[in-house]
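Quiz preparation item.
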């Protein structure tokens, strides 16, 4: 949402020059949710000393109290165990927290993750080898754990997913993921996923 409103530059939040009331309310609701159930420090890109009173200074608009909404928030994060990630059998590893789409590729092999659409793509030169809607993993976690409303970490093995097609085999280790589920429609919207991805070319 920050990206779609041009509010993110060099991994820092900048004030909105133009933003809809709907998006203002959505951002305020996310801030309220983390303030009540987790910690504001868990929200990526927020200043470490951010308080709700700083909304206008940070975002460019005032905080609005949450309104009645069918949107239920979820947040999953990986338990920090300090264990290494097993990479044997794979050719490449990417970290989604590094914005590959902001840099000119230096290799013929590349990854793109669109935080707005939640679509992950793996490229070799200009050929798309693999595409995945990351909402699928959010749904799997919600189906297993429900809508988490407490900051309880999950074992890394439960946040690891494997997939493959005729061209590649991938292992995706999710670090954290958050979003909303509409209680009236069941639709899931992932606001962003941080993850490592290991890739084996067939």
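Solution:
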């Amino acid at each position: 949402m920050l990206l779609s409103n041009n509010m993110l530059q060099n991994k820092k939040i900048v004030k909105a020059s133009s933003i809809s009331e709907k998006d203002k309310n959505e951002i305020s609701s996310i801030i309220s949710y983390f303030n009540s159930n987790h910690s504001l420090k868990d929200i990526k890109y927020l200043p470490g000393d951010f308080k709700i009173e700083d909304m206008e200074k940070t975002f460019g608009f005032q905080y609005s109290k949450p309104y009645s909404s069918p949107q239920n928030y979820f947040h999953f994060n990986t338990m920090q165990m300090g264990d290494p990630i097993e990479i044997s059998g794979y050719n490449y590893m990417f970290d989604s927290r590094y914005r590959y789409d902001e840099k000119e590729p230096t290799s013929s092999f590349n990854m793109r993750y669109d935080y707005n659409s939640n679509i992950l793509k793996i490229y070799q030169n200009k050929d798309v080898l693999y595409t995945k809607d990351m909402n699928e993993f959010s749904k799997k976690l919600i189906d297993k754990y429900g809508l988490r409303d407490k900051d309880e970490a999950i074992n890394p093995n439960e946040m690891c997913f494997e997939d493959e097609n005729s061209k590649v085999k991938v292992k995706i280790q999710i670090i954290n993921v958050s979003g909303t589920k509409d209680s009236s429609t069941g639709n899931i919207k992932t606001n962003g996923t941080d993850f490592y991805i290991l890739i084996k070319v067939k």
